[in-house]
Amino acid sequence: MISPENPIKTQNIDLLRTLFALFVFFLPLVFGSVHYPVLISEYIIGLILIILYLYYRHNFELIKPSLIFAVFILITAIITIVQLIPLPLGVIRLISPKEYELLSAINGVYNNIISPIRFYTLSIEPYINLEYLLRIIVLFFVFLIASQREFTESMILLKAIALSAAIIVLYGFIEGLLNFSTFFSYNIHLTNEGILPSVFKNTNHQAGFLGIAAFSSMALYYSVHYRYEKIFYLFCSILSAIGVFITLSRGGIVAFVASLIFLVSLMNRDRFNIKRSYLLYAGIIIAISTAFYLAYQEIISELSTLTDAERMQNEKYRLVLNSLGLFKDFLIVGVGKGGFETIFNVYREDNSFVSFSQMENQLFQQLADYGVLYFVIVLVVIIWFAYLFLKYPLSTKTALLVTGIFYILLQNLVDFNLEIFSIQTTTLIVLASIIARYCFVENESGEPVFAVYSINLVKKRLLAISIVLLVIFALGIYLTYDNLREKKEAEIELMLMSGVSPDNDYFKDKIRKYPFNYFIPASIAARDYLNTTDPIIKSYLLHSSLINPLAFEPHYMLYRYFFKLQDYANAQSQCRLAIKNSRDNKARLIFSELMKSVDKRELFKYIPYTPEVFTSFSNYLLSLNESELAKEFIEDALYMSENNTDVLRSAFLIYISLKSIPDAEKIIAKYEKIKNDYSLYLLKGILYETEGQLEEAFKQYRIADESNPLNSEILLRIANVSVKMNNLEEARSYFIKTFLCDNIGTDLKIQIYRSIASTYLIQKNTYEALKYLRIALSMRPTDVWIKSEIASICERNGNLHCALSEYTGIAIINPEFPDIAGKIKRIEDRLKVLEEDKRIEDLKR
Questions:
Q1: Does the pTM exceed 0.85?
Q2: 226-252 pLDDT per residue, tens
Q3: Which residue of 338, 571, 592, 819 lies most exposed, with the fewest beta carbons within 10 A?
């Protein structure tokens, strides 16, 4: 303890205590403490405060639980350091065989074009791991300092957390209400929906912080003595709880409700006086009621997805399943921090995943990062502390703090909040407060439950510790900043733009330095893969595909590279892989290349033999009016999977385009046995429309619309068949109704406006037709076909100046537009005639 005989020292400690509280207060406010510059600034500020605190307070008081957890943090630091030691590949082979296998494969790909990698770290991303080591050091001292009595008894750090959370929620309300241009929150689009904007990069992280802050604020309510202070922290608690719900984090909401049940069970176990806790229950009811009042539909909609088994399976469940091989291959010491995002590409079974930087499960994340031994240590620490906190009776305030820890652990079974620096700091402060208040104060005999260990630091030790910390941080910050991924990728792109050869030593050095980064070799090759046959291009692309086998770009570039070399066997192999790995419109890019460069009889060799790919290619061919060729591919797809509804639907549309009505009827008969929903009636409607039975087609489309309202395809079908039946008012009503459908893009909107305009042209109402065409043109001002329609109407109406303006615009945008010069000349000639007629008329007058 601090000697009361040294008032200056006491004042300095009080000042440092306030500065630490400000440090904790601002951590969540600066974008959740996730950006590298922000993190480094926080590490530096934290280091300065730590050194000053060590200087003014030479001794630390720790009890057994605090000491155990401090040792646990030190074990984490030691494993991180071991992962950062460069080791010969022979040693890596013994500890991490899969890493050795990948490094050896990379060396083999370059075949001495680049000097082989002989040393590497056990960490896949050593520079990210180094940054995390700096964080562990800061967190270690934060926990030690937060465990001291001057912090736990004043609860100043808990108060900083409560105030920070309240400000976050209040700011979100203000931003949502005023809808101003935000500079403070990430999720700007949420503002327009009236949901709480997030100062964290991820709203799930904000929910994690607000949840633990809600329980901490309520604990403060039971700890403080002044009436207005109590009201203030009750208000903070309610605000934070509301925030958890209206961030719309499914994991946050479910974990918060489960934590409330856990809290009630704790209180019932110890027979708390219900009268003393009535405000707790009232606060819970007020918070949940207010959250549902503000965002009832959104919360229910988000929670309803929990029952969507397919969505859950397609997200985090599959993420864990795809990571089982990673756990096995990196069993001893893991992949290190930052390594999961990089190495997961080797293990994922398909490319439907979005980019995952973490495991989305904190326990499995520890297994991936540090291996099985550390994973067991984590489980032992959690179980031991759970036993400790449940062994003895808890006061209401301590029960609330324990529930806060329970909440954050529970939420992290489906998220990675405990990888966020501000939430890590908050959790350690709450844990330190629980240990100190529980073990120092709450023993019935008035004696501490555990003995107090005092750690004294003499000036020489303080100086040595300070120097070591400063050196580690200076070196760590320099190396991590110098190797930022964004920085090095920008450097590479800059050098490529300036015309540097791919055989440059700088690029080779980057390859050896970052062998597990698939972006670097792919980027280097991207500029020159069509312009050169240099073997190093092939090596770069094979390296990239080795680290990310399911990436589209390396395989596509290898296909083009081998095709250029007339190595058709390898070109076909890489083309199949590229198509298999393609997403969005990338497959259409390859299909387009194939149609230009490959004989139609050879197309089968370049396309993966799967019903999905054959169907996709058939749809592409149909869009090119290559119906006969599309029929060949779709019939093969039917042979492979005759009960696949997507294949049947595509086959039906191809047969319809070929006017092969008997074949289309056979497809509908098969489809009806598999699926009897709106899509069946839609197909029947298309069949009747093709046969000219418009009334029957209209009837089938209406049945489909009743079964699946606001489906844009169905509404457009109804509208178009209504046009054919000359029911123009009804057609327009369905065209306009299509705007109510979800996810209609700009292309479809333009198509609808043009269709509405066409109905007015049928009625010779050129005024309304021009109005809708100009709306369409405003959405795409360079669309020459819309401009041509407008010009044609203007010409027919005698508005020649308008027509000339539109035709001239077309000529500027696309000089190759059909007969554009002739149209302009025709209008100019007519204008000259009119001007001459007007001149003669004026002379006669």
A1: no
A2: 888 888 998 899 889 888 888 878 888
A3: 819
